[in-house]
Amino acid sequence: MLLVLLMTATGAAVDQAIGSGLGVGFAVGYVVGALLGVLLVHRRDLLASVVAPPLVYVIVVLVSSSLTSGSGSGSVVVRYGLELVNELILGAPVLLGATAGTLVLAVVRWRGTRRAR
């Protein structure tokens, strides 16, 4: 799952360096990392390879938000919460697509290795 974290964080860093917020680089890094994670993980860890990417998504969004947000007024928890909700709403297609893709790949791998026995 380190692969998912590294690829997602790299995509987020590229987007932040460009100055566009979390965008295409983040989405591509997340999706590719999640799908590669399912393909490269041991069979016994297939469930974790489906569950972990959405958690990585949330972690990277929160870290990115903490690095880019100013010292604005109001509660830090509220600011991070609003940023997370915003990214979850705007990034829902990416998040759901990657999760569905990892689930499909995990099922295919699980069924394929089960038949090979």
What does this structure look like?
This protein has 117 residues and is an all-alpha fold. It has one domain. Helices cover 83% and strands 0% of the residues. It has five helices and no strands. The chain has helices at residues 2-18, 24-40, 46-68, 76-90, 92-116. The chain is elongated, with a radius of gyration of 16 Å. It starts with a helix and ends with a helix. The mean pLDDT is 89.
Mean pLDDT: 89
Please identify the structural class as seen in this structure.
Answer: mainly alpha
Molecular shape = elongated
* Count of all domains: 1
Low-confidence stretches: none
How many β-strand stretches? 0
Strand content: under 5%
Number of helices: 5
Main sheet summary: none
Rg is: 16 Å
Give the SSE order as H and E letters: HHHHH
| End-to-end C-alpha gap | 26 Å
